[in-house]
Amino acid sequence: MPKITGAKVIVTSPGRNFVTLKIETDEGIYGLGDATLNGRELAVASYLTDHVIPCLIGRDAHRIEDVWQYLYKGAYWRRGPVTMSAIAAVDTALWDIKGKVAGLPVYQLLGGASREGVMVYGHANGKTIEETIDNALHYQSLGYKAIRLQSGVPGLASTYGVSKDRYFYEPADADLPTENLWSTEKYLRSVPPLFEKGREALGWDVHLLHDVHHRLTPIEAGRLGKDLEPFRPFWMEDAVPAENQANFRLVRQHTTTPLAVGEIFNSIWDAKQLIEEQLIDYIRTTVVHAGGITHLRRIASFADMHNVRTGSHGATDLSPVCMAAALHFDLSVPNFGIQEYMRHTEETDAVFPHAYSFEDGLMHPGDKPGLGVDIDEELAAKYEYKRAYLPVNRLEDGTMFHW
């Protein structure tokens, strides 16, 4: 059995910061895991280097479940985004090693493919509704079967989801947090016309999605969901802050628009009430922030019992290592719903050569052993870490608000 002989953390910034864990074995096989926590990257790097890696040396790389339990239960201080991102990196790297030893892609080790490909959605955005629809038509021409619509809000200088570059959205944009202004009233007036124009231009054969980004109260979210019902959105994402899971019960009472949440969750406990009371339709937990493939499978199995499907987060703060891991998970899990897909820059793709591919609205992780992703360490070393924060939000009267 392969024994872990070494591990190291690689921090690189080919356009944005990524933290990658590389675990090496006595058989000459290594595995990669993503440990990127947007805006708090070095906290996870330190957690791995100073506290986790010393505990891995000499362990059997095949004992994935035992290592997971050791890192989760053995630390005493459980959960939290830093801890769970570190555990996720170890877990993902060990699945990569197991696949390489077996000579099989990871999805085969997870029970094989449950579908031919993984439906993904692209991100259409613009400063105006017209720009967003034009961008959405471009995604439709590329074969996307699902498109997220985000548009600027009249009267606000900046809006979540609207990027400086229409095709590469990166919200972590400054050495210190930029401050944005927000108005719920202006926002609520802007979204229904966006979806009305979206249906007129794109028709009914493409799924339309929207991200609220945790900014509404339950009753406001219920009103928006009801306003959007005639346009049959695929989902309304992150409608309200989810620390209080019961918030979604009130939203549910007022709209039949499907609800999705969970990209900032890091444990099954964050979603327990939401899933078992069927307050959501899609759970958006992802490999890197929710304890790796091992824990994500538990969340998906629990969700499957309650008719909740997966819809994992897939923004550019997930490295290609995590994107590959997500696709192996997506391809295998029976209650898969959809996968977010934001394309990485050419610089990032060069640092992380990968086997996954996109065609006709679907992605496939490829059939290389393991995850099918590598890292060019020499090239990675040329891109030094650059501190980058996510913005913060204030209401127009200066009150701090949800970003």
Write out key terms for the chains shown.
403 residues, alpha/beta, Enolase-like, domain 1, three-stranded antiparallel beta sheet
Q: What does this protein look like?
A:
The strands form three sheets. Strands 4, 5, 7, 8, 9, 10, 11, 12, 13 and 14 form a ten-stranded mixed sheet that branches. Strands 1-2-3 form a three-stranded antiparallel sheet. A three-stranded mixed sheet has the order 6-15-16, with no helix packed on it. It is 36% helix and 17% strand. By secondary structure, it is of the alpha/beta class. The protein has two domains: 4-105, 2-Layer Sandwich (Enolase-like, domain 1), CATH 3.30.390; 109-367, Enolase-like C-terminal domain (TIM Barrel), CATH 3.20.20.
The largest sheet is: 10 strands, mixed
- Gyration radius (Cα, Å) is 20 Å
Shape: globular
Question: How many independent structural domains?
Answer: 2
The share of residues in helices is 25-40%
What is the third-level CATH name, the topology of the largest domain? TIM Barrel
Distance between the termini: 46 Å
Q: Which ranges are low-confidence, i.e. pLDDT below 50, for 5 or more consecutive residues?
A: none
